[in-house]
Amino acid sequence: MSKKNKVILSIFLFFAAFGLVSFAFPALAQNQADFGMAPIANSISLSQTDPRIIIGRIIQIALSFLGIIVLGLVIYAGSLWMTSNGDEEKISQAKKILTNAVIGLVIILSAWALTTFFLNRLSGVISGFDNGNNPGNSSNFTYSGLGTIGSCTVESFYPENGQKDVPRNTSIMLTFKEPLKLDSVCVDNGGARCSCNGTTCNLVNPQIIRIFRNDLGDACSDNSCPKQNTNISNVMAVLTNSNKTLILSPLTPLGLETTNTEYVVKVTGDLRKVDGSSMFKGCSSDGIIWDFEVNTRLDLTPPQIVPGLVYPLPDNENDFFGEISAAKNAIGEINVLTCPKAYSPAVLIKSTPLGTSAELSSIILDYHGDINKFKIVVTGDDLNSAQIFNTNSNELLGVADFNSQGLIVFKNFFSFQVASHKAGDSWDLEIKPEQLADTLKVGSNVYTFATSAENNNILVESNCSTDKQALNIQAKLSGDEEMIVTRSNSKVILTARVAGESGNNISLSTTNQSALTLRPFTGGTNRSVKDEVRDKKDNPKNSVIQINFNEAVNPITVSGKAEEVAKYVRVVNASASSTLNGTSCMKNGDCRSYRCESGICRGDNLSGNFILSNSYRTLEFVSDSECGINACGEKIYCLPENSHLAVEIIAANFKKCSIDQDCLPYSPYKYCVMSSLGYKTCQNQSKRNYPTANLGLLDGVVDASTNSLDGNRDTFADGPLDFYTDNNSTDITKKDKYKFSFYINDTIFSASPQITSITPVQGQAETNLADPIKINFNTLMMNSTLRSGGAVISSGTSSIEHKLINLKSSIASPLGYWIENENLDVFPLDGIPDLTIVNIKHSVFSQSLSYKAQVGSGVKDIYQNCFKPSIGPGCVATNENPSCCFGSATNTLDKNGNCQ
Q: Please, is 96 exposed, middle or buried when counting C-beta atoms within 10 Å of its C-beta (0-12, 13-18, 19+)?
């Protein structure tokens, strides 16, 4: 063999060997990485992995060994050829071996490619989405379906993604940002779709909402779901009153008694909104998928309210107040100097043909600028073209062409028609430019001056005078809930209805300061008092009531309007002398509801809304009694001033039994015994009740495993016997309803919350890909506003979106995130929580990408004061630069109000 041929053959053998080794050995590693395999010795485990996947892996491993054999043949043939010393017989034999090896290699590579393709498809079917990742290994992969959490329609879920040690009798909870179409959620006992009603229609639709063991995979396909399959389909589906939160309760425990079990929850794009469109329309993926691990135990530990984590704290005595000076109302003023401008369109005054030019006709103005004189000239070079000039400055403004009918259109100026034209023809046009309407902003409303008084318009009359205009302004503003409006000649005086410093936040501005001279709202002061705190300090009337549980609770009995959940949780007048609905009263304080109307008590509890947040662990009550606005123009709601209030939370009743045999499934609670509740319950030898309530007949507060509330925190569930009162925490003989009371004063607290620190810090590199983002506030926060997305607030005839908490990557990615919070007692360490830490949890970050976290003005503290994005750690913005973006003050945001 020639030296040249030896070099070529050596290069070929090198690349052939490299390619085969790359094919044979990393193929095994690729299998392990992609599908979560253990080392080869432990990879075949029928109890842990789907048989279809195991078969595919065996085929790939076998093909890898065949590849090694081909590699050996190639090396042998090459050696034979290179040592032939020109022996034609050896060369021919080497060529034949190489030819057969190449043919075998092509066959093996084709088989490997087909096997890999079908293995990935099988993995996709099993995992619920077709990307080749194992959904049980959430620490290593990001589900595409997680992208709908936080950034799209899914607000929160439980258990959270990747959560370990979940009890077998857990419920699965999922909250959306929009209401669900009920017949896309439930089926009846016959499997027919129906609108969930809690009785005859209360089973989950197994085609749309799939719960399955990770090792068994999803037995349903996109088009069908076998009647008998390995998915968990015997699941009760219940929705909260808002139809936004879905509670899925398996009717038999999940998992096994002997080993932990991974479960996957997959919700497909066939889940519908009320309008019939997919709940995931416009999201990064057509559905949601996440996993969690169930342990081997049932949760029989009842939920508790965390000591010291209620707000306001239990308070046994009203503070003493000695008034020094009364609160003063803020006052603003509008002084009408001249009549504001109402809108009028541009008007043609005259058109003048110059020289022998023909008259213009069909002149239509489409001009919104301030030029009043134009010249049009037909150019000499092109008879079908004309130029338009600003006569005042001789500036060329544009060029246009005549059509066959002599029509010419100067876009954004005007159009006209002329019977004939020739080079050099010209015309002068004089117009009265368009006049834009002046506006006046008062509080959260924007008013427009116009020739009619419809909607939010303020009338400007043709024979306008300053006194008349002031009268028209007074007439329009008189219906404003935030202020009292009076007039003195051409001055309009605005007085905040609510006395105190909060009135100074009412905004007052105009686009025409030469017509209207404004004096902003000032002079509002809070009442000056000399006070003596007795027991705990009384709380401002704009407080939000907050209760924190030690675990997730079922939203059904605690979430919704006050009248919807009053049987289970309520806020009432704590006075023993207060009376019930329908009784006679003299004042609000006489009634249990704090609502005396026409001498009669209306209702048995305060009206408002209960909101469950923070992964279903924090319950908040917000009154519906408006009492002012915060610094962002949003309404705030107040509890009754100078009131003594109590929160009452009811424990649920237990499952009933008739004979001991009814209790056998609940061993060691295997004795059916008459309880102090007046009915028989399953009890153990220590006469402790089986703590689980009847899932279909919930009549009190339960956790995600349906255990009834442990109101007195003695670790046992005793049912709704008496009210344990947290104001007297030493008496645990009362059980197992829960109650605490506190005092509300007549002040409004109006300081905005601030962020004191964020981890990771701005611009930090090489962060842990799984660690949550931590945001520390300087005060207690309203947990229900610590969520993703934005809150739309109406302002006059327009709406403004106030951003909440959001997380985005620098490129489109299936990033999912959810928010949890904790209240901390920091300084002084007195058992009273001082501030809130927000944890933005998320699917695993991708390497080499940057991420942006956002906290917007929709976030509020426990007093409903909005967070100002202009105040952040290391960034103090100004009126000119009101936002903080990436640590720097700026006034530049994108069209959606986000940092660029």
A: exposed
SS3 state of residue 610? strand
Query: Rounded CA gap, 262 and 517, in Å?
Result: 69
Nearest residue to 119 (alpha-carbon basis) of 127, 70, 211, 108: 127
Confidence band, pLDDT 50/70/90 cuts, at residue 206: very high
Say if residues 160 and 143 touch (Cβ distance below 8 Å). Answer: no
Predicted confidence band of residue 51 (pLDDT cuts 50, 70, 90): low
Tokens standing for 76?
A: 């042998």
In a domain, 900, yes or no: no
For the CA atoms of 801, 806, 811, 817, the dihedral, rounded to the nearest 10 degrees, stands at -140
Residues in the chain, overall count:
900
Whether residues 777 and 841 share a domain: the answer is yes
What is the CATH number for 285?
2.60.40.1220
- Rounded to the nearest integer, the mean pLDDT of the chain is 85
pLDDT at 115: 66
SS3 string, 744-764, reads ECCCCCCCCCCEEEEECCCCC
CB neighbourhood size of 201 (10 A): 19
Residue 514, Cα to own-chain centre: how many angstroms? 44
pLDDT at 821: 93
Full domain range(s) for residue 221: 144-294
Using 50, 70 and 90 to split pLDDT, how confident is the model at 897?
Answer: confident
Residues 365, 495, single domain; the answer is no
Tell whether the model's pLDDT for residue 103 goes beyond 70. yes
Asked if residue 830 and residue 688 are part of one domain, the reply reads no
Burial class (CB in 10 A: 0-12, 13-18, 19+), 39: exposed
Tell me how far apart the alpha carbons of residues 154 and 615 are, in angstroms, rounded to a whole number.
12
- When pLDDT is averaged across residues 207-233 and rounded to a whole number, the result is 90
Sheet strand arrangement including 817-824: 755-759, 773-777, 835-842, 817-824
| Residues 626 and 502 reside in one and the same domain | no
The reported pLDDT for the residue numbered 145 is 64
